[in-house]
Design brief:
single chain, 373 residues, alpha/beta, 2 domains, globular
């Protein structure tokens, strides 16, 4: 019976999904200014918001067939897509309203926008003049916004058959929505691995902390290879949540509850000072009816808002540039990196260097874990 269910799940997935889309990335050198003041961060933020709003508006003209073709899918959940679009518009309006507070200091990309309807109207006609200081940014930015929007629409189109971070199932799940404007949080998953030691040491030297979502079997292997004291030194000053015992989808795995409980017990026992009661579902995949289980375990599902794509073919700098563009667009959120990727540290270093004077902040990992979403 289990084999039959697995085969049916695979067949349904194949019937819905086709080839994946190209990963969205953007070369920040096309933007002509350094983000070395909070005001210049706002200028770049307004540009990203308006550019993304333009392609979002254009996507609404697509019928179901045209959208499926564009997303390389055979079927599309149009209800989930409509819900995503509505949520994106609300986020864009809130973010633009925050970003326009500095228009007296620099009026670039400032328009009379007093409510969501104004933003929609401006998005419909938004363009960068051929003689603008920002002309070189406009074309590459449009490609980035289009590809990134397609990434989000595709996840919504597949939801909930294929769950992801695109939507929460309940209040037992959290992302970065509760963070203040300009406040971001670093998270890493997939470890511990060979790259984790240098990364945690780097973060401590930068006086930063992050939440590391670890594998139970990885923690056990690391402890067996070294010692529990070495394990605790590895994550000193950081927070440690769980990914489960193995890095595999917890949506259809029969032993998913055992995976969660076993890894939570392992990490809480070995790292009592660093442990936080947060579960990051591998690939963002989890069951729609799992909230009762997580509540019984005193765990929250920890999703993310900004995906670095550092496990793709992107270089460290390309990954960091993608993250920065999305930080400008969303203005707050949880950033997902993978510490089983050596490029993660280089990406974070680039990101810190290029936002040092921009007026952003980094959320304390313990404070985030203690938040009520």
């Amino acid at each position: 019976m289990r084999l039959v269910l697995l085969l049916l799940t695979g067949l349904l997935s194949a019937a819905v999904q086709a080839a994946p889309l190209e990963v969205a990335t953007f070369d920040r050198r096309y933007w002509p200014e350094q983000l070395d003041t909070p005001t210049l961060f706002d200028v770049a933020s307004r540009a990203e918001i308006l550019g993304f709003a333009r392609v979002l508006h254009e996507s609404e003209a697509l019928d179901e067939g045209a959208l499926a073709k564009r997303l390389n899918l055979r079927q599309v959940n149009m209800v989930a897509v409509a819900a995503l679009r509505q949520r994106l518009w609300q986020q864009l309006w809130r973010n633009y309203d925050l970003a326009q507070k500095s228009c007296e200091q620099d009026a670039s990309f400032c328009y009379v926008i007093e409510h969501l309807g104004d933003l929609r109207q401006q998005a419909e006609k938004f363009e960068v003049a051929a003689d603008s200081f920002y002309t070189a940014w406009a074309g590459p930015a449009r490609v980035f916004h289009q590809r990134y929007l397609d990434e989000q629409l595709r996840k919504a189109a597949l939801f909930p058959q294929t769950s992801s971070e695109i939507e929460r199932f309940s209040d037992q799940e959290r992302n970065g929505d509760g963070l203040n404007d300009r406040l971001f949080m670093l998270t890493f998953e997939g470890g511990p691995g060979p790259a984790t030691d240098a990364l945690t040491d780097y973060l401590r030297r930068q006086k930063l902390d992050a939440t590391f979502f670890v594998l139970g079997n990885g923690i056990q292997a690391r402890r067996d290879k070294s010692s529990i004291n070495d394990l605790r030194a590895l994550y000193q000053g950081q927070c440690v949540g769980i990914l489960g015992w193995e890095y595999r989808s917890h949506a259809h795995w029969q032993q998913w509850q055992e995976s969660v409980m076993r890894s939570a017990a392992r990490v809480q026992g070995d790292l009592p000072e660093q442990y936080v009661p947060l579960f990051r579902p591998p690939y963002g995949q989890r069951r729609a009816d799992s909230q009762g289980f997580f509540a019984s375990q005193h765990l929250q599902v920890a999703l993310w808002d900004i995906e670095s794509q550092d496990q793709s073919a992107l270089t460290a700098e390309q990954s960091a540039q993608r993250v920065l563009s999305l930080m400008l667009l969303w203005r707050h959120g949880v950033i997902q990196f993978h510490d089983n990727q050596p490029k993660a540290q280089a990406a974070v270093a680039w990101l810190l260097k290029n936002t040092a004077q921009s007026g952003i902040g980094w959320e304390d990992c313990k404070a985030y874990a203690a938040r009520q979403q």
